[in-house]
Amino acid sequence: MRGFKSFASAERFCRSHDELRNFLRLQIRHNQHVPANRRRRLHVRRATAVLAVLDAA
Known about the structure:
This protein is an all-alpha fold. It has two helices and no strands.
């Protein structure tokens, strides 16, 4: 619980961190080549969606 006042706060942070990481993660099959510009475009699109959700909250 380093830096958190309670276990519930740490749990909320870890859960939201995992959800965000999974959302931004590129989901491809093993050994599938994805060009850098496509990876970048997908990441920017997903990051924009996350920022819009955070802005609405």
